[in-house]
Q: What sequence folds into this?
């Protein structure tokens, strides 16, 4: 009888302990962030992982990866640099690789913001080239986007915009077109 009572006590303790260890989590789809991530002195790193576009000059499709880093010079305004690395598939021509680097300015609009997201505008001007071109040349970009904060320091982003490059590509002496992008940013607090 003592062995049965001891066995029941041990099993009851194990069952109680196992129940105490049960942790329920709910996947987070947004975080209430306010303006904390975009304060003066903070940093942002990340980029666009799937930037797709179509050129007006010819029947060409491109895909780019754009890593970027920036610093908030004031609340809601960041300056930084981004690299452009991509592939262009051109109809009836050889495919080519493109590259570039561009400083950018990004502004987060206070209008239309929510506790978990912000609209932003970004402009960049830099240099670009391609595997078939001769040297590098001017590249411009203007994009609008939305940053949805899934945590207090990480945001998923979607962008749409216009891009122009004067680099000599298979399409001719210049290339311009519309593009959409998906990516993320990590917001790091600065030293205070």
A:
């Amino acid at each position: 009888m003592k062995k049965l009572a001891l066995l029941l006590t041990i099993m009851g303790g194990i069952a109680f302990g196992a129940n105490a260890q049960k942790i329920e989590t709910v996947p987070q789809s947004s975080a209430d962030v306010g303006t904390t991530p975009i304060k003066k002195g903070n940093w942002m790193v990340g980029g666009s992982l799937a930037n797709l576009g179509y050129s007006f000059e010819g029947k060409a499709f491109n895909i780019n990866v754009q890593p970027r880093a920036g610093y908030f010079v004031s609340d809601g305004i960041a300056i930084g640099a981004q690299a452009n690395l991509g592939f262009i598939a051109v109809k009836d021509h050889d495919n080519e690789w493109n590259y570039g680097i561009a400083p950018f300015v990004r502004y987060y609009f206070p209008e239309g913001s929510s506790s978990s997201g912000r609209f932003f505008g970004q402009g960049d001007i830099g240099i670009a080239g391609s595997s078939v071109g001769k040297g590098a040349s001017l590249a411009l970009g203007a994009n609008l986007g939305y940053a949805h904060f899934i945590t207090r320091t990480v945001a998923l982003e979607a962008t749409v915009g216009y891009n122009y490059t004067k680099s000599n590509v298979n399409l001719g002496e210049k290339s311009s077109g519309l593009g959409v992008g998906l990516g993320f940013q990590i917001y790091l607090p600065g030293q205070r």
About this structure: Residues 87 and 97 are 5 Å apart (CA to CA). The domain at 36-188 is CATH 2.40.160.20 (Porin).
